[in-house]
């Protein structure tokens, strides 16, 4: 894996070119271009705000506490990070099958292709940060302090997790094309099984058995999205269990994904 990381780093310019190409192709012949990466999560946030911030505002404010007055910011923070997650998973899964000609003709580490999809979606997430900062200022939640350090930590852990998932799924998808369809269902489940549009306190205060609540917090995405929310709401900073599960789980997924990718590389190259 150390050699693989070094090889990818030595081809970082090729990775940058692939990211630029993917972004250009994705928004070609589009009048609004990159703004679509902002409109989609904002549209989702507006829908969930109407349902939970207007129709069920009483219950929502009760569970959010101080964050209830700035629920739109809470929503947009989670959904922007989620769009990076869902898009990176779906696009990195087919990163090898849709770029077979490049993979078989270009001499570079094949890990660059799924990692490039993760990096491309991260670029879209960066484009939304000014909107998050603007909303934080409007709702009075922007403050200089240690809570801002939660953002680079969240990004680093999330990037590690998504890179590992991309390496794992992209290699498996070449051999078993059902992986791509299966992940569409899993991604939908993960959206509601992660504290994106609701706080983790809602799960902890629920009537579910204790082992279910513990298992829920072992999901690496739980601690990651708590870190994203903790940027504006310090009380949301994850406890030891979800934070440890996120960091350790992301590293484990990266190592496992890289190992599977290298083991399957000769086989999927024949398939491509």
Topology:
Layout lengths: L1 H9 L1 H15 L9 H20 L1 H8 L6 H23 L6 H6 L6 H27 L11 H26 L2 H15 L7 H5 L5 H8 L2 H11 L9 H32 L1
Helix pairs in contact: 2-7, 3-4, 3-5, 5-7, 5-8, 5-9, 7-8, 8-12, 8-13, 12-13
Keywords:
single chain, 272 residues, mainly alpha, 13 helices, globular
Could you walk me through the main structural features you see in this protein, from its secondary elements to its overall organization?
- The chain has 272 residues and is mainly alpha-helical.
- The chain has one domain.
- The chain contains 13 helices and no strands.
- The protein is globular.
Short description:
With 272 residues, this protein is an all-alpha fold. The chain is 75% helix and 0% strand. The radius of gyration is 19 Å and the shape is globular.
Overall mean pLDDT score? 85
Sheet-strand content, in percent, reads under 5%
Morphology call: globular
Rg (C-alpha, Å): 19 Å
Helix content: over 70%
Element-level helix/strand string: HHHHHHHHHHHHH
Number of strands: 0
Supply the number of helical segments. 13
Instruction: Supply the number of structural domains.
Output: 1
Could you name the ranges where pLDDT drops below 50 across 5 or more consecutive residues?
A: none
Cα separation of the termini? 23 Å
Largest sheet: none
Structural class: mainly alpha
